[in-house]
UniProtKB/TrEMBL annotation:
Residues 34-53 bind DNA. SUPFAM superfamilies: Homeodomain-like. PANTHER family: HTH-TYPE TRANSCRIPTIONAL REGULATOR RUTR, HTH-TYPE TRANSCRIPTIONAL REGULATOR UIDR. It comes from Plantimonas leprariae. This is TetR/AcrR family transcriptional regulator. Keywords: DNA-binding. Residues 11-71 form the HTH tetR-type domain.
Length: 209
């Protein structure tokens, strides 16, 4: 078997396990999803899971990375649709919070993920989002839309506010009722970064659709 064929088969095996795990973790939760049932659903064995992900926790990490990466892409698309710039940045944050209403995101990424994998702000996908936000913040400061402040600090606080708002929505007894409260507070906190001139040039409430 060639190295290319071997790599292709490994990628297909990983993809099967991730798909099966997404379904199982979303339906039953991480703790209640048996590994034998999960691997059987994918047409594979426990050995394949151990070989590709080390253990069940490693599989959860891969599933969370996949979903969180998709969330970031969706949020960026919504930000671009809002016109980019400040309105786009704010729309991205609101979109990320709104995704906490989706059952798969809620259970896997925002409830089981932190419980099993630890602080979400240290996940690789969150670090990638931070770099994107830093670039946007730096541009907005150069355009005098935002007040002069440390770029990394502003980006970390913006991303952290959106992430913690999403965690709050997901963990609340009534996520639908909590969501608008979280969004209102996020918008108000974020707007504190606006320069007086920037405040006049941008919309304060981009659509969350």
């Amino acid at each position: 078997m060639t190295a290319t064929k071997r790599a292709q088969m490994m990628a297909e095996t990983r993809a099967k396990l991730i798909r099966a795990a997404r379904l199982a973790f979303a339906a039953k939760g991480y703790a209640a999803a048996p590994m034998d049932e999960l691997t059987a659903e994918a047409g594979l064995t426990r050995g394949a899971l151990y070989h590709n992900f080390g253990d069940k926790r490693g599989l959860l990490q891969a599933v969370v990375n996949a979903i969180d990466g998709e969330m970031a892409e969706r949020a960026r698309a919504i930000g671009a649709g809002a016109g980019g710039g400040w309105n786009g940045l704010l729309a991205e944050g609101v979109a990320y919070i709104e995704m906490a209403l989706e059952p798969e995101v809620q259970r896997i990424v925002l409830l089981d993920g932190p419980a099993v994998l630890g602080d979400p702000s240290r996940w690789p996908t969150q670090n990638a989002c931070l770099r994107e936000t830093m670039r946007t913040v730096e541009t907005l400061m150069a355009e005098e839309v935002l007040r002069p402040v440390d770029v990394e600090a502003a980006a970390r606080l913006l991303n952290g506010a959106a992430l913690n708002a999403a965690l709050w929505v997901a963990a609340s007894e009534d996520p639908s009722a909590t969501f608008p409260k979280a969004v209102d507070a996020f918008r108000l906190l974020a707007s504190g970064l606006l320069a007086a001139s920037g405040d006049r040039r941008v919309s304060r409430k981009p659509s969350i659709d």
